[in-house]
Amino acid sequence: MEEAGMSAFHGSDLEKIEAIYGIPRERIISFAANVSPMGISEGLIDAMKDQIRCIERYPERDYTKLRRAISSYCKAEPDHIIVGNGSSELIGDVIKYHGGKKALIVAPAYSEYERYVKLAKGTPVYHDLREDEDFRLDLRVLADELERSGDDTKLLIICNPSNPTSTAVRAEDMRDILALCDRRQITCVVDETYVDFADDGYDMSYLAGEYRSLFVIRSMSKFFSAPGLRLGYAITSDEELKGAVEEIKDPWSVSSFSETAAGYMLTDEEYIAKVREYIKGERERICRRLDSLKDKGLKYYEPEANFVLVRLPEGGVTAADLFETSIKQGMMIRDCSTFRGLDERYVRFCFMRKEDDDRLIDLMTENID
Amino acid sequence: MEEAGMSAFHGSDLEKIEAIYGIPRERIISFAANVSPMGISEGLIDAMKDQIRCIERYPERDYTKLRRAISSYCKAEPDHIIVGNGSSELIGDVIKYHGGKKALIVAPAYSEYERYVKLAKGTPVYHDLREDEDFRLDLRVLADELERSGDDTKLLIICNPSNPTSTAVRAEDMRDILALCDRRQITCVVDETYVDFADDGYDMSYLAGEYRSLFVIRSMSKFFSAPGLRLGYAITSDEELKGAVEEIKDPWSVSSFSETAAGYMLTDEEYIAKVREYIKGERERICRRLDSLKDKGLKYYEPEANFVLVRLPEGGVTAADLFETSIKQGMMIRDCSTFRGLDERYVRFCFMRKEDDDRLIDLMTENID
Asked: Which residues, 6 or more positions from A119, have their beta carbon under 8 angstroms from its beta carbon?
């Protein structure tokens, strides 16, 4: 996805990097995958060692226990939760439900939204965040645009915090948009893949019971350091949509191992608090380091997630240059030139271990001098 | 699926059984799920204990290593293999590819084929196996029917060995049908979920390179005692279809844990030989026991898979009766009355451990006296 240029690799393309640059996969620090560096806990590893035999049975038909664990984690009704094979499956399914219609996508955005809309023979339309507004979403402007849109607009897709900008809107500020979507029968998909990393006040799953139009999507991949689980979930009180998605999706799309592991992970409060605290600290620390590069013409956008979008100084190294330089040091960042609305000056990187982050910032500092 | 009657439970509905009959899930022997009773190997368990951290990384983008392991197991080209989230995902995807068209389904059949055809706005048409031919598929009659079908017939779906009849056609006998499908541009889906249990000569994956129309589907759920893995694969040399299915399907639909475990399982030749030998022996033994019930009016159909379809004597206990009687003893069989072409006299059960199989046959013997 988004692989136009040589350096615009998806964060998971470590095999390709290995082949092209000759660096063993294990030695590459992926600043591009937006996965927490914490890794899974020893407690989980020990627990799962005794659970290998879970693959001998089918997952629960309705994933009742798993939905209960998700419910306790994100404070949504178990009946409002749908589990899926990664958030991708659920994004694909809700888009299929509104196949052939217009989808308003807040951009720049994860390229899978567009891919799924086109697959479902729908038309992607964009609401572009503005650089001169620091890529902050102006909800009044968005509301005006929605009001003016025709009846064939059936989807509004927002990533919050946004990938790749890491900016976010607060949950309470969404009420007007959600009321409008309720009235206009537009499904408002809010992809909260990165919300677990954000401070309180951004997560909007608690609003799903109140606004039928809200369809929140979550993932275990990033915050829980477990992209290999392939486990995502959606939260909605729209019974019709929920029924249709359950009809469209494959039965048992989550494996028994992932089902069992997630039950443990979602209730491990100590681990959850530790990851949140670490990322918050690192986010603040890296922003302070980036502040010192502002006078060289570097700009970044106030991050709420576990990654930051940076605009490199004009006329200096490009995103592709910086990608090349850092990959040779075993550090893989994201060249954002292929994102709609961004160009060859934008890079994105996530917060990893302190020493790795420092190494990357040191390298950036040298290269933009 | 297929849950019309109280007793027509899917083999994985243990939670419902638990709730209705008050029998703990662990105490129920599932003769209805068609899963090998062998369980996973101690070697696999030990190997996977050291691999829990595999969930920290994304699965391989193209599942290269996994496809290589599958290739060595089933003698198909790695490039002809697509992996999926259980065979269901792949069945769903190939049917979607031919959405809106007619699909000729050899019946009685797994109900998911029909469900997916309808979901894809296609029309299911049936080629009914005949009881008076012992549910054996007559390939010449099928070929005639295909010849007469209109150009809107785009799919032929055969389960081989068939679920629920356990009858099968030999691979070499399929050449005429496959040549016809090649010529008529019909995709011939052969669901080989149960072929690993059959004697040599039934598996037709080696024909996929020769006939573009052949789309073989396989699963790790039944033979490898691992329905919780959610891992299936398809084999086809139709590059266009393969590309389209890969485009339709979710990226990384198989988890890292399943990817890693399957790599081990598919190359564990000792385990594979042991399961094949056990099931073959048990299949023959149970048939001999059923032979002794023939004079009471019981009939069964020569099984090639790990389960057998039985027609109960006329006017005696029904499939629902026998389900009730056996579930109370903790044995869950499949009441087949909801399958197209079958009625309340048909039950299906798979081969489990010898002592369990004997207990079930003893109970049947008592109840049909």
From this structure: A92, A95, A96, B247, B248
Q: Which of B40, B53, B228 is opposite residue A255, by nearest beta carbon?
A: B228
- Residue B359 CB partners (closer than 8 Å, separation 6+): B329, B331
**Taking the domains of chain A in order of start, what are their residue ranges?**
14-40+270-368, 42-268
Q: What's the ipTM?
A: 0.91
- The correct answer on CATH 3.40.640.10 for the domain covering B53-268 is yes
Residue A49 near chain B (CB below 8 Å): yes
pLDDT tens readout for residues A117-167: 999 999 999 999 999 999 999 999 999 999 999 999 999 999 999 999 999
Q: Which amino acid is at A352?
A: M
Smallest CA–CA distance from B250 into chain A, residue = A89
The amino acid that residue A306 corresponds to is N
Over range A87-110, report the average pLDDT: 95
- B55 → closest Cβ in A92, A256, A261: A261
Distance CA B98, CA B152 (A): 10
DSSP annotation string for A7-64: T---TT-HHHHHHHH---GGG-EESSS---TT---HHHHHHHHTTGGGGGSPPPTT-H
| Four-way CATH pick for A42-268: 3.30.565.10, 3.40.50.2000, 3.40.640.10, 3.40.50.720 | 3.40.640.10
Cα B128 from chain centroid (whole Å): 18
Smallest CA–CA distance, residue A348 to chain B, in Å, is: 19
Contact A58 B16 (CB under 8 A): no
Q: Using a CB-CB distance cutoff of 8 angstroms, which residues of chain B are in contact with residue A245?
A: none
Judge contact between A165 and A301, C-beta under 8 A.
Answer: yes
What's the CATH fold of domain B14-40+270-368? Aspartate Aminotransferase, domain 1 (3.90.1150)
Helix (H) or strand (E) holding B357: helix B354-368
- Contact yes or no for A187/A181 (Cβ under 8 A): yes
Mean predicted confidence (pLDDT) in A195-211:
97
Q: How far apart are CA B218 and CA B235, in angstroms?
A: 8
Please check whether residue B26 touches A, CB under 8 A. Answer: no
Contact of A92 with chain B, judged by CB distance below 8 Å, is answered with yes
Region B221-236: mean pLDDT is: 97
Q: Name the closest residue on chain A to residue B61, using Cα atoms.
A: A13
**Joined tokens for residue B61:** 């983008």
Q: How far is CA A120 from CA A116, B238, B324, in A?
A: 6, 23, 45
Query: What is the rounded CA–CA span in Å between residue A194 and residue A187?
Result: 20
Please, which residues have CB within 8 angstroms of residue A293's CB and are 6 or more apart in sequence? A364, A365, A368
Token output for A368: 């933009």
3-state secondary structure of A281: helix
**Cα separation, A335 vs A31, whole angstroms:** 11
- DSSP output for A291-333: HTTGGGT-EE----SSEEEEEPPTTS--HHHHHHHHHTTTEE-
Q: Which residue has the tokens 């592709």?
A: A320
* Locus of tokens 């019930």: B293
User: Which ranges in B164-306 belong to alpha helices (H)?
Assistant: 175-184, 239-248, 256-265, 269-291
